[in-house]
Amino acid sequence: MANPHTTPATATPPAAGHDTHGGHGVIGHVDSPGLLFVVFLVVIGLFAANVAMSTSGALGKYTLFAQLAIGAVQATFVGLYFMHLRHGDKVVVLTALASVFWMGILFVLFMSDYMTRNRVMG
Q1: How many CA atoms, within 13 angstroms, populate the side-chain half-sphere of residue 113?
Q2: Domain boundaries in the chain?
Q3: Residue 95 above 60 pLDDT?
Q4: Three-state SS across the chain?
Q5: For 117, phi and psi rounded to 5 degrees?
Q6: What is the pLDDT of residues 14-56, one digit of tens each?
Q7: Is-above-0.85 flag for pTM?
Q8: Cβ pair 53, 63 in contact under 8 A
Q9: Residue 29 to residue 17: CA distance in whole angstroms
Q10: What is the pLDDT of residue 30?
């Protein structure tokens, strides 16, 4: 019986950009800190653009749509880079997409309830 605390002699070293997590032989992708810092700066820059857009009102009635688009881009960056969905299993990506789909169902149900209520004028 082989010793479970040693790696087999035929094991190949991890490829560049990959790391063995805790020496357990599980190979996963590790993003460089520079890339993560750039993504962080992009998310913060989009936040600043969102705040500037809300205070200036330059787009008029299209401001909300632009801010929602910026928020969607921010959520995409956070999901892909900080939640590691770029390198996740298909099950993990499917779970993330299912949660977004479920949130969409809840928004549709909420808005259908809100839009069908009678308005009482004061």
Answers
A1: 6
A2: 28-115
A3: yes
A4: CCCCCCCCCCCCCCCCCEEEHHHCCCEEECCCHHHHHHHHHHHHHHHHHHHHHHHHCCCHHHHHHHHHHHHHHHHHHHHHHHCCCCCCCHHHHHHHHHHHHHHHHHHHHHHHHHHCCCCCCC
A5: -80, 150
A6: 555 655 555 566 566 788 899 999 999 999 999 999 999 999 9
A7: no
A8: yes
A9: 6
A10: 80
